[in-house]
Amino acid sequence: MKKILFLALLALGMSARGEITLLHTYGCTVTIQSLCKNTFGQKDSSRSIYIQKRKEAIRKIDSILKLTTYNGGAVKKIKRTAKRARLNFDTYIHTADLAHEFGYNTEDLVTIAKIASKAKFESKYFNELADLCMLQAGPEVTIFAEYLLRMSNPNEYFIEKTIMEKAIEVFKDYAHFKSMIEAKAANKIIIDGMLKAQ
Questions:
Q1: Higher pLDDT residue, 40 or 149?
Q2: Could you tell me the residue ranges of all domains in the chain?
């Protein structure tokens, strides 16, 4: 049911001419020219900058890993992704922290981290999509993360930013949990049960 709602409310694709088509909540099809011309945001001008950011991210993930009593496998996978990355280091730290804390959907977090590593731009939306995984907004969240890669740069372009924010709003409406506070409370019950079973 959620998949049907997702496809009906929000479907994003890109044509060979670089046009983006959005099928939104009103059932209309809006076609716009992609504002990107073979660029996907700015790259760090200095190699040393991303190397330093990578080292700092790995250091923080190592600190998270030391505290992890379960889901260590997911945190390690995210760390391996961070080691190969050039951008979105905040996302690797954020997804590792969520994987450390939560007892479910950790493979979705690994997927978000891998997708973020393929991006040609920095984006806060990867973190927001990771949060949606914890709110149990459905497997379509990771599918939509793949579509984010095909955008120009939703941080800079108004239309793409609007698409992302509308998508996140739709996901939140259909999420099982309505806030991270609610999700963490439910997660505590899961984790307590897991620890008692050990």
A1: 149
A2: 47-155+177-197
Calpha distance 35→2 (Å, rounded): 31
Torsions phi, psi of 12, nearest 5?
-125, 135
Backbone angles phi, psi at 41, to 5 degrees: 95, 170
Percent of the chain with pLDDT over 90: 54
69 against 51, higher pLDDT: 51
State whether the Cα torsion 135-140-146-148 is positive or negative.
Answer: negative
Over residues 84-113, mean pLDDT: 95
For position 48, what pLDDT does the model report? Answer: 83
Q: Is the dihedral of CA 79, 81, 85, 91 positive or negative?
A: negative
Identity of residue 31: T
Residues 6+ apart with CB under 8 A from 187: 101, 102, 103, 104, 134
Q: What is the per-residue burial (b if ≥16 Cβ within 10 Å, else e) of 19-32? A: ebebbbeeeeeeee
